[in-house]
Amino acid sequence: MRFRHPDGTTVHLAYCTNVHPAETLDGVLAQLRDHCEPVRRRLGRDRLGIGLWLARDAAHALVSDPSALRDLRCELDRRGLEVVTLNGFPYEGFGAEEVKYRVYKPDWADPERLDHTTALARVLTGILPDDVTEGTVSTLPLAWRTAYDDGSADKARTALLTLAERLDALQELTGRSIRVGLEPEPGCVVETTGDAVAPLAAIAHHRIGICVDTCHLATSFEDPHTALDALTAARVPVVKSQLSAALHAEHPHLPEVREALAAFDEPRFLHQTRTSTAAGLRGTDDLGAALAGDALPDGAPWRAHFHVPLHAAPAAPLTSTLPVLKSALTRLVGGPHPLTRHLEVETYTWQALPPELRPRGRTQLADGIAAELTLARDLLTDLGLKELP
C-alpha cells in the first residue's frame, strides 16, 4: 500500500511474511498464492506491499539462478504484490517448533551474516517495482548480548563497513539503492535505540541505519519522541519501521494478571520481559522466567516482547502497547517530512497466541492481517497522508 505524504514523497506500508515461514523458494511462491494475494483481495486493493522474509536457502536459490529471480518478480506482479523491503533478521528455521535464541544466529561477527545480507540486497534490486529505486533490509542488532566481546565487535564493525561498500557497488551496477537497518531488540547488544548510536556512529555510513520496531521500543519502555529525536540529533537514519505492539501488564503483582500472562508463555519464541524501575530497566530473557518467583520486581508495569495483533488487544487485565505505536508513528511520518518511507506491520506470533485467540485456518489469518493493515492505514490517513491507488 502506498501513501502520499504532505511533502510529496511516497510512504510504503507492507506486512511481513515471516508470519508464513517457508525455507525454500517453492515455499515462498506458495505464500504469495495462499496468503498474500488473499489479504490483498480482502483489502480490495489492486496492489499490496509485502515485507518479504527469505530464509537462507530461498535467498541462495534466487541469487544463484537469474531465471528464478525473474520468475519471482513475475509472480509478484501477477498476484498484485510489490516488495520494497525485506526482513533479514531471521536466517533460517523461523517456523521451527522452538526458535528462542536460535534467531540470533549467525550474528554480525560471523561472515555468514554478511554473505546472507548481501544476497538479500542483490535479490531486492531484482524485485523492486519499476518506479521504486530504494529498498531496505532489516537485520539483527549485531548479536545476542552474551558471548559478545571486543573481538566480536571489531568483526561486526568490519562486516558492516564491507556491506556498505557492497551496497555502494550494487547501486552503481543496478541503479537501485539498498539500505540496511539494525533492529534494536531486548536482550541484544543493541537493545534500545540509544544503544544503536555508538556502533552506527563508528560505521558512519548512510547505507547503514536503524529499523525501529515499535514492539521492541515499548518493551524497553522507550519514549518514542525522545528516542527518535535523539536518533535525528545523532544523524542516525531510520531506514524502516516495523509497526508492532507488545504485551502490557499494568499490575503484575496481582494473581489474576500473572495467570493471564502465563497464557502467553509459550515454547516457540523468546518473550523478553521488562519493567522500568527507579534504578533503571530490569528484565528477564523470557516471560516464564519473569513469572517464576521474584525474578522481576512487580511493583511497576511489565511489558513482554510478544507481538500481539494491532487491532485486537488482549482481554483485561492485560492490554497492548498500541499507544506507543501511535506515538511513534506520529513522529515517524506525522511531521513536515517523514523520518522513514518504509513501514511494515510485523505480527509473526499469530499461531503462538493462546489457543482461543489463534486464527483457525488461512481464512481467519488473512482476515486478521487485513484488519491490522486497515488499522495502520487509518492511522496514516489520520496523520494527513493520502492513500494512493
Automatic annotation (TrEMBL):
PROSITE patterns: AP_NUCLEASE_F2_2. InterPro entries: AP_endonuc_F2_Zn_BS, Xyl_isomerase-like_sf, Xyl_isomerase-like_TIM-brl. Residues 62-228 form the Xylose isomerase-like TIM barrel domain. Transmembrane segments: none annotated. It holds the Pfam family AP_endonuc_2. Keywords: Isomerase. One of its GO terms (molecular function) is zinc ion binding. This is Xylose isomerase. It comes from Streptomyces pseudovenezuelae.
